[in-house]
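Typical record was shown:
=====
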Amino acid sequence: MTPIRLAIVGATGMVGQTTLAVLQEWNIPLADLRLYASSESAGKRPPHGGSGFGLFTPSKGLSPDFFIFFLSAGARGRL
């Protein structure tokens, strides 16, 4: 399988953490991984499966360089 460029919006929430766990469990090859979270999550460690990757806030928009985005912004709907 060709490595993919993946971004996860809501990476620190339950859906984002589950997405990371499934990617790791299935050994999905990633060329790049960008983890987005709300400003409330700034300074937190990336969730399980995201070690080695920083957390970004999408305040200036999402990078168009990624092929696939998983979006799970949460109940409050704020990023």
